[in-house]
Amino acid sequence: MSTLLPILPPSDLLENNDALSPAAQKAEEEKNAMRKYFQKPGSQSELTGHADQEPVCLYLETTNRCNLLCVTCPRTYEQLEPEADMPWEMFTSLIDQYPNIARVVLHGIGEPMLVKDIAQRVKYLKDRNIYVLFNTNGTLLNDANGRALIEAGLDELRVSLDAAESEVYQMVRGKDFFAKIVQNVKNFTKLQRELNAPKPRVSLWLTGLRETVDQLPNFVRLAHEVGVTEVYLQRLVFFDEGSNGLARAESALFEHTTEREEALIKEAEDVAVELGIMFSASGAVDPGESIRMQRNDSPWSLCRRPWSLMYITANGRVLPCCIAPFSMKGYGSFTLGEATQHSLREIWNGPEYVRFREGLLTSAPPPACANCGLRWSL
Prior knowledge:
Elements: H1 11-15, H2 22-33, E1 57-60, H3 88-97, E2 103-105, H4 118-126, E3 131-136, H5 143-152, E4 156-160, H6 166-173, H7 178-195, E5 201-207, H8 216-225, E6 230-234, H9 259-275, E7 278-281, H10 305-308, E8 309-312, E9 317-319, H11 324-327, E10 337-338, H12 344-348, H13 351-360
Parallel strand pairs: 1-2, 1-8, 2-3, 3-4, 4-5, 5-6, 6-7
Antiparallel strand pairs: 8-9, 9-10
Helix pairs in contact: 4-5, 5-7, 8-9
């Protein structure tokens, strides 16, 4: 799961861009430019429950179906909403309501490539000059689907792999597709070279678990072997009560890393520099920094997502962000509107959204946000 604030790469790569391969350096420049989608619309004192600006980003959950059983994902253990693909009519209607939207993310709780017309949806967005990306588990990234995504103009393809070897992959992802996915990604980057197609940018993602941190150095090496120039260490999202699988506090690295675990992260950073790979962690300056708490009084207070983006589920429910479904059970307490009943503009500054934003500005934030930065952690 990713759909996160773009960050800068490790500081040593910033100081020495020559350490990056040309493709990785270009990716780093694009990623830093993409930070504008999450620029703060104002300081803490200037913000109110009303959003003065339109959202710059939409997260459209093209499907909530999935063909894996990941032990870090809530949908493995409960049905969050009825299974559905977002209807084409709803998809186009949502986009047409904000024709100047800058960025659209086509994933949520589900695997976007299960949607048969996913490439057509990408093209619909690219025809409107929108930056488009999605996360995939890579199981369906065959030649035909890969060509279609390239031709449609997809900007970024994030592959959640979570391991550098089959046994560990199966432990985290629930099924043994490791070899198939690795070959799919390798074939896809080869196809890009043959077609001289620099886009989509392809990246590999690993969820930071105590059980998998030792995979990191070889995960970076694997990325290099399959022709991928970007690697991300994904933060583990979990909630305290009734957490299932590995989405639990004991598996998180945040603020409790051992010397060995920190050494493994440092080793992965060194391997990345050696191979010219851009290695970053979600939500922090660099992978090492992301395991240390920046502030503990109100970790939610720096969040600007409710002022910059909207997340719409496959069934049309509007949520504050992609992290919320992982942060607590059920959607009831953080549903901000129904896109099947009201326009996005009515919802964006409607009473539920205003109330949610106002709560985020206090010392008693909405429950889904209360420990974001603690639970939403490595």
